[in-house]
Design brief:
Blueprint lengths: L2 H25 L5 H31 L6 H31 L9 H30 L1 H10 L6
Length: about 160
């Protein structure tokens, strides 16, 4: 579709990894195979959230007649706020027992995975709601208008 839109989605991955690395350094201070599994999961969630946000902006432009304006981006971000927060909260709350079970028998692998995912969800959610709209507003105009004109799947 567009290199610009793809790069904007991929920008979410380092934002999520920052929180994952921070939480890992704070609680575990060790990178293992288990934490790497968590990093992969966090990267997938971050990419999905970015795709969901950008595709909603394109949907607003194509199907609801919105122009590429600051108001459209604010509207699109607010409309995606609840789904993004619910995804992060449901996963984060489900992992709290594993976060608290650091020294429990049998949790040697699950605890590091939970630490990474919760840290990544926190940073990804917060930064995705701030950085993604700003980057889209600054660099996405041409790609968005081209995608809407071309009737691409991302804009439907």
């Amino acid at each position: 579709l567009s290199l610009s839109l793809a790069l904007q989605v991929m920008l979410n991955i380092p934002l999520a990894l920052m929180g994952a690395l921070g939480m890992t350094a704070l609680l575990i201070n060790n990178i293992s195979i288990a934490t790497i599994v968590g990093f992969i999961a966090v990267g997938g969630v971050a990419a999905r959230n970015g795709i969901m946000m950008l595709s909603h902006y394109l949907h607003l432009m194509r199907h609801e007649g919105e122009g590429f304006t600051r108001q459209m981006i604010i509207r699109g971000t607010l409309e995606r706020l609840v789904p993004v927060l619910m995804t992060a909260l449901s996963a984060g709350i489900a992992l709290i027992p594993l976060l608290l079970a650091a020294n429990e028998p049998g949790k040697e692998i699950l605890h590091p995975v939970a630490v990474v995912i919760v840290g990544g969800l926190i940073s990804s959610t917060l930064l995705d709601l701030l950085i993604t709209p700003a980057v889209f507003y600054l660099f996405g105009r041409r790609a968005a208008e081209s995608a809407v004109r071309a009737h691409t799947l991302a804009a439907q």
